[in-house]
Amino acid sequence: MNEKKAFETVRHSLKPRRFEHTERVVEQATKLAEKYGGDFKKIRMAAILHDYAKYRPTEEMRQKVMKNSTLPMRLLDYGDELLHSFVGAVYVKEELDIKDEVILSAIRYHTTGRAGMTLEEKIVFLADYIEPGRTFPEAAEARKLAEDDLDLACLASLKNTIIHLSNKSLAIYPDTFEAYNDFVNK
Ligand SMILES: [Fe+2]
Ligand SMILES: [Fe+2]
Known about the structure:
By secondary structure, the protein is an all-alpha fold. The chain is built from ten helices and no strands.
C-alpha cells in the first residue's frame, strides 16, 4: 500500500477532526524521523494508519481480543482507549494486508509504549503526544525536550500520562509502567 492509498483509507474511516490529527501526527513524525533517523517510509506509514481503528465499535474490538490469540487478554481489563491501538494493528494487518512488523508495532504501542521500544515506535508514540493540536502544557514540555533528546521526551510523555491517569483514578496498562521504568533507567 502506498501513502496516497493509506491516506485515502483513513480519510474514510476517521471523522474529519481525527483525520486532521492524523495529518499532524504524520508531519510531526516526519520531523522526528529527519532528526533521529529510523525507517522513514515505515514511520510515515505507521503514523498515517495509527488511529485506523479509532471509531470501530468497542464491542467489536473486545470480541476481537477474545478471538485473536495474538492479542493480550488483559486488554479487556483496562480503558477502552487502549483497544484501538492494539486491535488497530491487527485490523491493519488483516484488512490492509500490511505485514511489516516495524509498522505494526509502531501502531500497536502508540498509546501505551512498552519496555524496549524501537526507534520507530518511539517516534510514532511521541508524535501522537506532541503534535501541534495537543495544547495541554505537558505536550509543550515534551515538545521542547524532543528538540534535543528523544528518550527524555518519551519519558516525560509517559510520566505525564501516568500522572494524568492516576489523577483521574483510571487503570494504567502495565506496558506504560514498563516503558517508564525502561526510560528512567537509561
Ligand atoms: Fe490513538
Ligand atoms: Fe492519534
